[in-house]
Amino acid sequence: MRTLLPSIKKDLSWFREKIAFLSAPGRLADYDHVEIAEVIGTPKGGYPTNVLTVVVFSENGSFRDLNGAPVLSSRIRVSGIKDWSFGVARTYRPLHGIDDALQEFEQKGEWKLTGKELKVGDLEPHGPVFAPVNGSFEVPVNRLIKNNFWSGSHLFRLVDASKESLKAFIDDPRRLQDLSSKIGPSLPIELSGMSDFLGDIVFQLPVLALDANMFATREGSDVSVKVSWRDGTTPRPLRVAARTRWDNLLVDAAVSDEFTEEITLPVDRTHDPVETEIFEARTGLLLAASAETIALRTIALRLNPIRAEPRLFSCKGASGAAMPVRLDVMDSFQTIVGEAEKSAERRWYRRRRELDEAKRLEATREFIQYRPDPGSTASRERALNDIRHLITAHGVDGVDLWDPYLSADDILQTLFWSPYAGSDLRAITGRESPPNPCAPPKISTFEADQRAVLSRDGGNLEGLKLEYRCRNGPEGWAFHDRFLIFPKAESGPLAWSLGTSVNSLGNAHHILQKVGNAALISGAFNDLWAALNRPQHLIWRSW
Description:
20% helix, 8-stranded mixed sheet, 7-stranded mixed sheet
């Protein structure tokens, strides 16, 4: 019988001690069992692999089967990941099962919290951290943990450092979105957008001994705190701290005297978001916290009443045939309810932020306009240098260039400038010629012409790993947009819209700008690249 290779052993003694301290009876709650939710992936002929495990410390275990087998969801398939099946397993275990599992993992490198071994990566212990309830701004980890609505939760985490078994989700985030949507009926978490937690084991210790409510007074000049202790819990002396910040300045802050149920702090949150924490006065143990929350003082209302008379006109539909249109026309009015911002300080602050952002965007090439002067090549040279700068800044592990009019000369002016030996450089062209009414198209000799240019001007190809493909035949699809993509950037895929084809960069007004949803753009490029895999699609390869 095959056995899993053990994971790298770690010293978890401090990790276990901290969990044991916080889970002691009455400290945060009266935990007596844990609820375990596992997202598991199993390759064909391979071992069940941890995609994400969330372990929630819970109470009232007498109502649970603490020795039962995991309850499995139906098998899930994820588009783009062949020969793997996924599912969700739910089970309960007694509280001591946590330390037993951590000790076994520490000694043998085997993870068997539910009794069945699960393949895990090179796990590194992290924590504890505290996850407050969401305020005006979201706390992202709340997408993954259970019911963090009241006072907050202490979290510990075994982090999969390499995520080697789960690279398919990181290489194409569309797969993670697909998995997240399919596990939703069995496990209501939002795994998409949280790829940094893939392969991890998260331990959640919710604070259940009290329910804390922190809110502003009507005038916004104070913060009131009310604590409701759970029945059977002896109230303890508490302290609360609160602060507001603006422009990285500490605007106001206060720490309360000891209290058990209710207190007010003189912290002005009229214009700035407030953060609060409640501590056990004698030990400093954190028992509740709130994320940044803004006091709502102004509401903008927009009214759009429909006019009695519609707009009537005709236009061509998708088929080209004329069709009548009847469009309701609306007026638009906006009114402000509450106190509008009048502070000169903040008005000029916003202006400074706008100027700083414009400078940052230009320095990082995230947004640049090109306005060439007639007869000058300066704008063209600047645009090419900006592309080369981006390739150097982000292309250490690879660059993709996607342009329907891309040519060998364009590639020599861009991708050949990558200074990184062995970087994966890929280019796709649509075999289209730039519009020129005076020159007949030469599509029939396109590939030969491209090879001739690269053979003549490509030089010694030192360290160059470049492949150049075209759409030729029924495979793939026609495309129009032009993108420079960095699919393996350190923080995830990045993409820039060129605004024009490489052959006309800087020659007419256009905008080079970083775009959102880069992972989806990179995924679309990969789909087309995979479709163009026949010999007639390969124009040139440097190796």
